[in-house]
Write a structure and sequence with these properties.
2 copies of one chain form a homodimer. Chain A has 6 helices and 14 strands. With 213 residues, chain A is α+β, with helices and mostly antiparallel strands.
Chain lengths: 213, 213
């Protein structure tokens, strides 16, 4: 096997290290987070750090990179309005979604700059990505400043879930392959998924058995 | 689209809600975290909450569920020894990896109970999963108690990376499809990935262009 030690990592060229380290934790979620500024500008940005955090209360987290230099419109809007939406990315939206990571000025809506269709819903003060098969609305819950690298872990509480017909199982589970959801590989790789199996809750001594898809 | 509101979520049957909420954030990483107790018992457990956290210093996080009732051997060992390994899961390891989530007693090594072959490496006080195509060693860095649901965000610093030949690009990126790495869909679904494309760093005004795979 190829081996990189601590000192190899430390001395690595910066982009090479970024590509490597962002790959070694495995596939990541691909989500477009949408917010509306207090001036009415709709912001959209791709995040690969969204993680589930319990289901009662239903929450998710994302990691905000160190602020400044045009970074952090999503975070700023969320703090000011308290509302955010999470929208899954399908293959035919990948190019535009990736381009949303460019540093557009605060006065520019990525929906307009990238020609991504949005929808509004009553009572939710942030837009949704119309073509997303799974859409979630959430509110700001709290945050933790991670002093180790000046990032912020942001906690959001899920208030509403919308999804296309035909992707949910009888037991509540959503089939992400049927939803066409993409996964992120590293900083810039995009993968489709093929669901291979579901397995029943594991107990010591029980045989491993599958749940019908 | 199907719509669930806050009150729908609140009143949902517990397992139905768990299946739904664990699906709506998208695909998750699938990793076996391995530790060695101070009594020499090797622990192995599947986690779907591992997230990258910067590349200089190279870190990752995982979320430790509320402790107690036989939960938390990974966390306990990591705190006591300071060392942990992260091992990717391929399709032919999924059943055993899933079964590692059962509550084996502290005195039982999941490596032995599940017949998963391990390897040791000089200077690293935690075992690795031999058949994992990507293996990472890390040390305990710090933690944040998330009071919103009594979970712990654990930060680990990457010290060593090992991976099979043939999966790395010239620019450092690891191809997770070639590694055979699995993604998690919800609580109990397992998906393989197909890398569709890589895209160049996005800049305002630039055309979107692909990086050769």
């Amino acid at each position: 096997m190829t081996h990189y030690s601590s000192s190899d990592l430390k001395n690595m060229e910066r982009f090479y290290r970024g590509n490597l380290i962002n790959s070694v934790t495995g596939y990541k979620s691909a989500n477009l987070l949408a917010t509306r500024s207090i001036n009415g500008i709709d912001n959209l940005s791709i995040f690969s750090s969204v993680t589930h955090l319990g289901s009662d209360p239903a929450m998710f987290t994302f990691i905000q990179r160190p602020l400044g230099h045009g970074v952090g419109h999503t975070y700023q809007n969320l703090k000011e309005t308290g509302v955010i939406t999470l929208n899954h990315i399908q293959l035919d939206l990948v190019n535009k979604a990736h381009q949303s990571s460019a540093k557009y000025p605060e006065s520019t809506s990525e929906f307009e700059a990238l020609n991504i269709e949005k929808i509004s819903r009553d009572g939710i003060q942030a837009p949704f990505v119309k073509m997303a098969a799974i859409q979630v609305a959430a509110t700001y819950e709290s945050e933790y400043f991670l002093k180790e690298n000046n990032c912020i872990l942001v906690l959001c509480k899920i208030t509403d879930i919308f999804f296309n017909e035909g992707i949910q199982s009888e037991d509540g589970w959503l089939n992400l392959e049927k939803a066409g959801s993409i996964a992120v590989n590293g900083l810039d790789g995009y993968a489709t998924g093929t669901v291979q199996k579901r397995l029943r809750y594991a107990r010591v001594g029980d045989d491993i058995s599958e749940i019908e898809l």
